[in-house]
């Protein structure tokens, strides 16, 4: 009688699996459970648990602030902090700040052909760090404010963790206790991930420290391309940062292209863009050989290109100024050289730019002045320049949404700073896995055959044991 009962239960199990397979619908997921009373009498009280067969991938949203500013060779001063606060739009803080500068040193013979001097870049990093972290008060410290001098640089997450640990275990003053808030004061909410200087072109990338715990941030590399005088001097060119956040790769390119508003000058700029694409590289180290890392700009998932791109207007000066007085930005954009490149699929084929709803950012008459250079009546010693949107921010890749695109009103230089805020999605491969079974009802197609066999055997074993009681 016992053998018959066990055979009957085994038969019921086989029938149950067959019926489950015949009802399979691969278009959705379901748990191992069924409400069919007749088929599931022998399955009462049985609960499935997850087998964690594949890594969990979850899309997360980040806010990236991208800014560009040609500072006309001027050194940062303490009073500039208020201008930075406006430019960085700190009322709505971002997760990542990517800032590109041009002409952080005067473009003179000594600075162009001489050895790189990190002083000005360090000063800018110091001011940016203090501004980003000022809302927390207290003394702000950061482990790195000097720009990276070697293109083979890679961010060392482990040493960063050790440094933070050193901060946390250092002894407080006698009679005092250190709170988490005070620790964030000292280390800073935003961390400098990378910065790179080439003559006057400079990039600085900052990230909220909380993201370093949430995501795996890796493969932070830098690259520079000099394509100015004779095609190889650094008065013009680009500095770039490559990095991976979770499962998404990013490339940030800060550029300063050839100036000039004569006919044909746009061709020089286009050539420099092509050179930057061709010559920017992020070589793999020996330990990276098995990793599928991007080597070029276009190898990344999401790319941002920004700077003083110097594209001008195909329009006479007096007509441009009249449209500016009318705030007729759409009419003015019809004559914009870069917009023409984007529409006709030139060097920036497939790239995007947000709608421009602000006045041209170049060239203003003098420091602390809100008047464009040139025009009538002419002024002695003043350069005649047709106003133009020289300072731009472009992007390339899927999963990027621009939330805003605006200029700030700092009168620090003859350019106005420009900013854009983006919402982007990254793949996070570190998310927690569910403990509840969830896989397609066609069990054998999802779980390896050996696992299914063991699974069936375990169910039958449980039923056999139950039959003796």
UniProtKB/TrEMBL annotation:
GO molecular function: inositol-polyphosphate 5-phosphatase activity; phosphatidylinositol-3,4,5-trisphosphate 5-phosphatase activity; phosphatidylinositol-4,5-bisphosphate 5-phosphatase activity
UniProt entry tagged with the keyword Hydrolase: yes
Inositol polyphosphate-related phosphatase domain mapped to chain residues: 60-430
A UniProt-annotated Pfam family: Exo_endo_phos2
InterPro entries: Endo/exonu/phosph_ase_sf (IPR036691), IP5P_plant (IPR045849), IPPc (IPR000300)
Keywords: Hydrolase
Classification via SUPFAM superfamilies: DNase I-like (SSF56219)
GO-annotated biological processes: phosphatidylinositol dephosphorylation
SMART domains per the UniProt record, alphabetical: IPPc (SM00128)
Protein family: Belongs to the inositol polyphosphate 5-phosphatase family.
Protein name: Type I inositol polyphosphate 5-phosphatase 4 isoform X1
Provenance organism: Nicotiana tabacum (Common tobacco)
Lineage summary: Eukaryota, Viridiplantae, Streptophyta, Embryophyta, Tracheophyta
């Amino acid at each position: 009688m016992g053998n018959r009962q066990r055979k009957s239960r085994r038969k019921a199990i086989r029938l149950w699996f067959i019926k489950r397979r015949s009802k399979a619908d691969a278009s959705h997921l379901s748990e191992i459970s069924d409400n069919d009373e007749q088929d599931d009498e022998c399955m009462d009280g049985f609960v499935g648990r997850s087998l964690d067969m594949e890594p969990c991938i979850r899309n997360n949203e980040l806010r990236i602030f991208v800014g560009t500013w040609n500072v006309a060779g001027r050194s940062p001063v303490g009073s500039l902090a208020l201008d930075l606060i406006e430019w960085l739009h700190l009322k709505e803080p971002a997760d990542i700040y990517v800032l590109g500068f041009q002409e952080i040193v005067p473009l003179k013979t000594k600075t162009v052909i001489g050895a790189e001097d990190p002083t000005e870049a360090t000063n800018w990093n110091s001011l940016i760090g203090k501004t980003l972290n000022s809302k927390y008060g207290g003394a702000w410290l950061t482990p790195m404010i000097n720009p990276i001098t070697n293109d083979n640089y890679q961010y060392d997450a482990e040493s960063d963790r050790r440094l933070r640990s050193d901060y946390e275990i250092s002894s407080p003053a006698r009679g005092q206790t250190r709170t988490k808030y005070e620790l964030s004061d000292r280390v800073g909410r935003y961390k400098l991930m990378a910065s790179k200087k080439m003559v006057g072109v400079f990039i600085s990338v900052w990230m909220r420290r909380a993201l370093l715990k949430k995501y795996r941030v890796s493969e932070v590399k830098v690259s520079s391309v000099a394509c100015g005088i004779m095609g190889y001097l650094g008065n013009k060119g680009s500095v770039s940062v490559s990095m991976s956040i979770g499962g998404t790769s990013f490339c940030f390119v800060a550029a300063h292209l050839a100036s000039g508003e004569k006919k044909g000058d746009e061709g020089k700029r286009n050539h420099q863009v092509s050179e930057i694409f061709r010559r920017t590289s992020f070589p793999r180290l020996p330990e990276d050989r098995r990793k599928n890392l991007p080597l070029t700009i276009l190898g990344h998932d999401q790319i941002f290109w920004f700077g003083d791109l110097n594209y001008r207007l195909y329009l006479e000066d007096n007509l441009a100024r009249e449209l500016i007085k009318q705030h007729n930005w759409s009419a003015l954009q019809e004559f914009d050289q870069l917009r023409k490149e984007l529409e006709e699929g030139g060097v920036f084929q497939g790239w995007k730019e947000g709608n421009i709803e602000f006045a041209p950012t170049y060239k203003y008459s003098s420091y602390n002045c809100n008047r464009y250079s040139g025009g009538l009546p002419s002024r002695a010693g003043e350069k005649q320049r047709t106003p133009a949107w020289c300072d731009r921010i472009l992007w390339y890749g899927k999963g990027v949404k621009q939330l805003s695109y605006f200029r700030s009103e700092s009168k620090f230089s003859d350019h106005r700073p420009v900013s854009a805020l983006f919402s982007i999605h990254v793949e996070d491969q570190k998310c927690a896995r569910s403990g509840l079974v969830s896989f397609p009802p066609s069990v054998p197609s999802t779980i390896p055959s050996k696992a299914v066999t063991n699974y069936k055997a375990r169910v039958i074993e449980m039923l056999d044991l139950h039959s003796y009681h």
